[in-house]
Design goal:
Structural class: alpha+beta
Number of helices: 4
Order of helices and strands: HEEEEHEEHEEEH
Strand order of the largest sheet: 7-8-9
CATH architecture of the largest domain: Alpha-Beta Complex
Number of strands: 9
Number of domains: 2
Helix content: 10-25%
Shape: elongated
CATH topology of the largest domain: Homing Intron 3 (I-Ppo) Encoded Endonuclease, Chain A
Mean pLDDT: 86
Radius of gyration: 20 Å
Strand content: 25-35%
Largest sheet: 3 strands, antiparallel
Length: 156
Amino acid sequence: MPRISVEERFWSKVAKGDGCWEWTDSPNSVGYGTFTTTANYKTKYYLAHRFMFTMLGIEIPEGKFVDHMCHNTMCVRPEHLRFVTNKENHEHLIAPYASTASGARGVSWNSARKKWRAQAYHHGKCHFGGLFSTIEEAAEVALKLRLELYTHNDLD
């Protein structure tokens, strides 16, 4: 039986739609599609959206991340992907980190003051927006900080 090429195997796992091109194979533990290749008895693991650029003959620049502008981690459509720095990638988050108790991006609880803290990180520095009685007030100030500081904040 003839072996299929890496390209054919890759494309067999992609469902092209009008919007996102969905990776149909199982996601990894954090929700990204993965793809493996084997050559000379060595297996290499790739994130499917990064391997897409290999398929197109495009090298990912050193130190760059591939950002999903569509926020769909299973999307491999090149028009939905862009090269960004780590800083830019973090600015383009759609939601707060799962560990955030407030449920609001840039808002945390200050237990010493019994208030909600508004903040935004930029270039490794925490920009403090103040302490507030409600999550909503803190979230509004955190949003204003992000809009002021971030360059890749497409959603705010």
